[in-house]
């Protein structure tokens, strides 16, 4: 499914859509380095509850964030069907644990609607907009606010 612009030549975003529970989210595809199957993570002592631990990614240590827990949803119980979206956040590679990748979307910039004022402040910090696609809403996640130090600096 590709959402197309009605105005030729308008600025477009390419997004990768994924599911967490019954909800759909998306991130800018430019930040995504790869998508890989679930690999059990080694827990880190004293890490925040949304950090699953770390995995070895071709010799590099990759922290894995349970995106459901980070967004305030029930934490995932990872299985073979879960995936890790390897993304660059600032200067760091991070794995985002999600239920499944569902789509690649190409949308005009003006298709992204602002997050409503009724949203809880923490939700608005992580969700930078909503995208109406075929009768449903997909939340556009702001990757630069997922890690605590970036959230405080922003």
The H/E string reads EEEEEHEEEHEEH
Helix count equals: 3
Q: Classify the beta-strand content into a percent band.
A: over 45%
Strand order within the widest beta sheet: 8-1-2-10-9
Question: Kindly, what is the distance between the CA atoms of the first and last residues, rounded to a whole number of angstroms?
Answer: 33 Å
Major sheet attributes:
5 strands, mixed
Query: What oligomeric state do these chains adopt?
Result: single chain
Kindly provide the radius of gyration, computed on alpha-carbon positions and rounded to a whole number of angstroms: 16 Å
Tertiary shape: globular
Number of strands: 10
Helix content: 10-25%
Coarse structural class: mainly beta
pLDDT averaged residue by residue: 86
Uncertain segments are 1-7, 150-154
Task: Set out the fold topology.
Layout: E1 12-20, E2 23-28, E3 32-37, E4 51-57, E5 60-66, H1 67-70, E6 83-89, E7 92-98, E8 100-108, H2 121-126, E9 127-133, E10 136-141, H3 148-153
Parallel strand pairs: 2-10, 5-7
Antiparallel strand pairs: 1-2, 1-8, 3-6, 4-5, 6-7, 9-10
């Amino acid at each position: 499914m590709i959402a197309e612009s009605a105005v030729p030549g308008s600025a477009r975003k390419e997004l990768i859509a994924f599911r967490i529970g019954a909800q759909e989210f998306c991130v800018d595809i430019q930040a995504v380095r790869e998508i890989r199957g679930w690999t059990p993570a080694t827990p880190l002592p004293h890490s925040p509850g949304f950090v699953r631990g770390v995995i070895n990614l071709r010799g590099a240590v990759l922290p894995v964030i349970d995106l459901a827990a980070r967004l305030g949803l029930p934490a995932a119980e990872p299985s073979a069907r879960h995936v890790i979206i390897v993304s660059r956040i600032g200067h760091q590679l991070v794995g985002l644990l999600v239920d499944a990748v569902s789509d690649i979307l190409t949308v005009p910039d003006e298709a992204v609607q602002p997050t409503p004022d009724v949203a809880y402040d923490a939700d608005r910090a992580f969700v930078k907009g909503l995208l109406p696609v075929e009768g449903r809403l997909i939340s556009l996640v702001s990757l630069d606010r997922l890690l605590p130090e970036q959230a405080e600096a922003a």
